Amino acid sequence: MYKEFFGLRANPFNVNPDPRYLFLTRHTEEALACLTYGIQSRKGFVLLTGEVGTGKTTLINKLLEWLRVQQVATAFVFNSRLNVPQFLDYMMADFGIVCDSSAKSQILLRLYNWLLDRYRAGETAVLIVDEAQNLSDEVLEEIRMLTNLETFTEKLLQIVLVGQPELEHKLRQPQLRQLKQRLTLRAKTHPLTGDETRAYVQQRLRIAGSNGQEIFDAGAIEALFRYSGGIPRVINLLCEHCLVSAFVDQQKVIGATVVESVARDFDLSTNPTSAPLTTPGPAGANGKAEQFDLADALRSLATLAERLRESEGDKDLPTERKL
């Protein structure tokens, strides 16, 4: 409706977790590097947590996109309201593993043989479970048991648990202490800062086809940050409705009053802890603010490995493997 009016080719603020729109901040780059490192070095268990709307699923979709390019077998369980048989069935189906029996023992045996064949071929498999804070203790225990599928030296199945901060609280329960002890790496997503909010909006507009003309002025960006608290999902919601409102009024540049009006419609209040925006940082050689990309994230693995040595007290981290 408003795309032609603002000179856009696509909807820049769609709430779907499209990996093309992943905005890599320092925290997000570190989280992505942690996930890829854990998978490449066959750490077994990796945990990714973050508040609602901070981009966990978008980050995971970017990871899945990269894994599939590398031809890594993946299973992505996004419905956590499953019992143990349903969970196993879903995982096997997503891996593309056919098992003629519904008996749990036969399913696990078939999975083990499949994983062992991939390991012998120098390949790996990754299981990603989203919204893991909703998993029952029984399913979480079953996932822990899957890490017993291993050789003498390495885990055959790499598992990424993704969830809200409630997942961390859940893992502190005494009955889940064995699972908590097996979490070798932890990553987190965070809300955006004021400057990151500005860059986030500009990047999404650019990817959607903007020619660089101003659509959200400085006052609008600051209002977006105040009302969203830096949560990307809320920023998307506000921006989408601001574009619709401005289109209806035939207003080419969106100011703070438009953002405030939309925020009132959604009963959003300002975040009193939000720091004010600062002036943009220096631009890169191409005249645009420097942005991270996936290659940068992977190049930071050496730094991350050093941090892990310090935190784990492990002086002999395994050499990274190519997927």
What does this structure look like?
This protein is of the alpha/beta class and 323 residues long. The radius of gyration is 22 Å and the shape is elongated. It folds into 2 domains: 3-19 and 192-265, Orthogonal Bundle (Helicase, Ruva Protein, domain 3), CATH 1.10.8; 26-191, 3-Layer(aba) Sandwich (Rossmann fold), CATH 3.40.50. It starts with a helix and ends in an 11-residue tail after the last helix. It has helices spanning 3-6, 26-40, 56-69, 84-95, 104-120, 137-146, 165-171, 177-181, 194-207, 218-228, 232-248, 256-265, 294-299, 301-312, and strands at 45-49, 73-77, 125-129, 157-163, 185-188.
Topology readout:
Elements: H1 3-6, H2 26-40, E1 45-49, H3 56-69, E2 73-77, H4 84-95, H5 104-120, E3 125-129, H6 137-146, E4 157-163, H7 165-171, H8 177-181, E5 185-188, H9 194-207, H10 218-228, H11 232-248, H12 256-265, H13 294-299, H14 301-312
Parallel strand pairs: 1-4, 1-5, 2-3, 3-4
Helix pairs in contact: 9-10, 10-11, 10-12, 11-12
Q: How many whole angstroms does the radius of gyration measure?
A: 22 Å
DSSP strand tally:
5
**Portion in strands:** 5-15%
Q: How much helix is in the residues?
A: 40-55%
Number of domains: 2
What is the CA–CA distance across the termini? 43 Å
Overall SS class: alpha/beta
What is the quaternary state of this protein? single chain
The whole-number mean of residue pLDDT values reads 86
Reported for the largest beta sheet, the result is: 5 strands, parallel
Give the low-pLDDT segments: 279-302, 308-323
| Main CATH class of the largest domain | Alpha Beta
> Order of strands in the sheet with the most strands?
2-3-4-1-5
CATH homolog superfamily of the largest domain: P-loop containing nucleotide triphosphate hydrolases
**What coarse outline follows from CA principal-axis ratios?**
elongated
CATH topology of the largest domain: Rossmann fold
Order of helices and strands: HHEHEHHEHEHHEHHHHHH
- Tally of individual helices: 14
Which CATH-level-2 architecture of the largest domain? 3-Layer(aba) Sandwich
